[in-house]
Amino acid sequence: MAKDDTIENRVYLFDSLARSYVSAASELLSSEDEAVRARAMRALADLAYVSCVVADTGHLSPEQVRQRVLGTPDPELPEPDEDERGGKGKKRK
């Protein structure tokens, strides 16, 4: 499980990003068009993902964090150890 300070960082980052997005995209989030609302919700989900990646990768360089967020493999990135993955699941490729 992630350390408490990492969880707090995730929440803080997401709160900050989500507040900005919601104030800018409130019309999209309340649209009568289901497809528009779904895209807006996916954007919020992406912000949550980015918040987690950024909070969990403080030990990496900005370029390495960028690669993680984009999901592109970087041959120079070390594979996360079991502690970093919480000891569960398989490594992502």
Low-confidence stretches: 87-93
What's the end-to-end separation, in Å?
A: 21 Å
Mean pLDDT: 82
What pattern of helices and strands is seen along the backbone? HHHH
* DSSP helical segment count: 4
Strand content: under 5%
Task: Count every beta strand, where a strand is a DSSP E run of 2 or more residues.
Answer: 0
Tell me the structural class. mainly alpha
Indicate the overall shape.
Answer: globular
Sheet with the most strands, sense and barrel status:
none
Query: Could you estimate the helical fraction of the residues in percent?
Result: 55-70%
Rg, Cα atoms, Å: 16 Å
Describe the structure.
The protein has 93 residues and is mainly alpha-helical. Helices cover 61% and strands 0% of the residues. α1 runs antiparallel to α3 (34-56). The chain is globular, with a radius of gyration of 16 Å. Mean pLDDT is 82; it is low at 87-93.
Topology readout:
Layout: H1 4-24, H2 26-29, H3 34-56, H4 62-70
Which labels suit this protein?
single chain; 4 helices; mainly alpha; 93 residues
TL;DR?
This protein is mostly helical.
